[in-house]
Amino acid sequence: MTTDRGDDPHVRQTLGAYVLDALDAQETGHVAGHLQRCGACAAAYVEVADAVSLLALLDVEDLLE
To answer: What domain of life does the native source organism fall in (predicted)?
Structure first.
């Protein structure tokens, strides 16, 4: 995670794991809380969530092309 001037760690590096529900409960809570306070990370979350949703639409044949 990176740190801004306010020393509040951003969560951009963990958004993929957060979207995939691959974090433990404590880290999930930290990311969720941060997303409520940080517009930049919340915007990045939307982008990651959209990408994951689009990837779910692909099937094996699409990936092999």
So the answer is: Bacteria
Q: Kindly report each contact of residues 10-13 with a partner whose C-beta sits within 8 Å and lies 24 or more positions away, as own/partner.
A: 10/34, 10/38, 10/40, 10/41, 11/35, 11/38, 11/41, 12/41, 12/44
**Amino acid type, 10:** H
- Tell me what the pLDDT averaged over the chain comes to: 84
Please answer whether residues 35 and 44 qualify as being in contact, where contact means their C-beta atoms are separated by less than 8 angstroms: no
Q: Which amino acid is at 29?
A: G
Q: What is the pLDDT of residues 17-44, one digit of tens each?
A: 999 999 999 999 999 999 999 999 999 9
Task: Give the start-to-end residue ranges of the domains of the chain.
Answer: 12-64
What residues contact residue 12 under an 8 Å CB cut-off, 6+ apart? 1, 2, 41, 44
**What pTM was computed for the model?**
0.70
